[in-house]
Amino acid sequence: MDLTVIVPTFNEGPNVAELVRRVGASLRGTEFELVFVDDSTDETPDIIRAVATTVDFPVRVIHRDVPDAGLGGAVLEGFHAAQARWCLVMDGDLQHPPEDIPRMLDRAAVGDVDVVVASRYVAGGTAGGLAGVTRTAVSRASTALTKSMFPRKLHGTTDPMTGFFLVDREAVELDQLRPRGFKILLEILARRQLRIGEVPFAFASRHAGESKASFTQGIRFLTQLAMLRFGRMSAFALVGGVGAIANLVIMWGLIRLGMDYLPAAIIASEVTIIGNFLLLEYLVFADMRAESGLMRTRFIKSFAFNNLEALVRIPVLALLVQDAHIPSVLAAGITLAAAFVVRFVYHALWVYAPKRTAQAVAPARAARAERSLES
User: Under CATH, to which class is 3-212 assigned?
Assistant: First the structure.
């Protein structure tokens, strides 16, 4: 087989028939398969199966009941299921025109690249399908930020976050990928130095349905960027920074309402402990949840430790305020910063530790400590 086309889908039923028709027309004469990796909550997988019976090329659907790691995880599952060496990834909403696929194959056929990126920002490409000036500006700014953080690995591309690309599976270490959210190409390019080629394309308007872009996806992107560039500890720091700001804002607000600084600090801590746990679950340690037991067990471990930490930290806060005469909110910030490393080590080595047998406790703990230091 010459090519596997991988299409991650989430509630894209109205687009399926047109997508399949245009892909088939564009690749006439090519031996290929079309693989949908579907996380839908509607009838999309049934529509795909029905459309598959009407065409003369292989169409498969892999429906994931548990959509681990979002769109990036779906693409990774498609890579593992693919029968061809070369895999083309595209969205299911027809914003990536199937008519551009032959040009991408022609570029790969030259033989000097591992990845062919369909770029909105190279000469001849357009980003007209982005919804409005704000989204276009955000896309441009995030692209510039990403390229500045990986200047060598992303040197060959103007659009490292496009979802439309062709990749040689043999050039990618699939087991090293840790996808989070939408930006799977960034994950691929940042993990290993690859040879990159580009072709321009016009980013089209959606054929049907609604955009999946959201504030949550933006947070996922920032977390992914931090983890790729600086490791897990930096993502933990990002979440901790958000929690610390929330803590200080809540404390400040309660003090303004007339509450004493100590009970205000206690309430702010309890609120942010819960919020931080949820962010750690779904952003920083998402890839470790499956092997670390039940969510309620992780919450109990995290909640108990953070309250124990607060029992130590808040008396220190009182000493800084009463004896050192440091303003209360500033003193709270100092104590939160001091607790950061201890929190990270505890969560990485105990809260999200893989379940293990008694015989493997010591070696496993040593290995996790080494991985955490490397991250």
Answer: alpha beta
